[in-house]
Amino acid sequence: MPNDSGAPDELEKLVNELGLTSAPSDLATLRSEVKARISELHPDHKSADPKARLLLLGKVLKKTGKGATALQKTANNSQLARVASRAALFPEETVEARLDAVGASQQIVRSRAFLIPKLSLGGLTALLTWTFLFPKTFMDHPFVGRMLKGSHAVSIWLLAIALLVVAWISVWCLEQRKRWYSDQILSLDYQKHTMDSVARAGSGCFSASKFRENLWSRYKLYPRWFRWLVGKLRLKSFYSYYTSPVYDALLVEKAAELAIERFVQKGWIVHTERPEDETDVDDWYKIV
Fold this sequence. Notes:
- This protein is mainly α.
- The chain has helices spanning 8-18, 27-41, 51-63, 70-74, 79-82, 86-89, 91-113, 115-133, 144-149, 153-185, 188-201, 208-215, 224-233, 249-266, and strands at 205-207, 219-221, 241-243, 269-272, 284-287.
- It folds into three domains: 8-83, no CATH class; 114-185, no CATH class; 188-287, Arc Repressor Mutant, subunit A, CATH 1.10.10.
- It contains 14 helices and five strands.
- The longest helix has 33 residues, at 153-185.
- The radius of gyration is 34 Å and the shape is flat.
């Protein structure tokens, strides 16, 4: 039966002529045998066989290439015809790899985001340490020298150290909190818990935007004591909710998209029509 790259009997003829033991339809095994023969017969190793034999082996290797040829399509027992790409066979591995990539990139983004505060605090710490160890250097300064010579120098030193320590702890806590949120929304258990809670509130259905909002809320509730104080002072400019300082919209968008794709591949959810009483025009899903 002819094909685009040559008839199958042409490959079979080459196999018989070269004395190969592999079947022409088993392309993977045939390629391995041809590569072994080429390695054995190459002039760099042995020069016993003529160059023409190497050319024929190279021709067989070319005909059994990795591309899907007409010969591979007609060979029912071909290994390449039976085995698709790994991404097609295991799509969940692709999603997991993309989630790992998002997590790795988020670590880089987080490190860059907290780099400037750390450098600034590092510079202030170095300056304060230098001033403490070598106070004579700043004695002639019109502002710093006056504080160092004043009666409240010890109190100022203690206050500066306390503020610097509080600043370092605050930056560290924000970084750790953002790391915790980032690792959490990329984990399967947390994503499934969020999906269950959102679907339970919507009678088994939820939209992509609702899932994204609940995966990592942009807004946080002020503490009760603060809301009580605001109410007593009647400060209308303050509200019950504030924007989270560690919220990352781009990370939430990517994590929510990949989480829904992961749920669909696992067979936990399927696409569904938007309920009549809902106004959210985003994609809707229901738990199977």
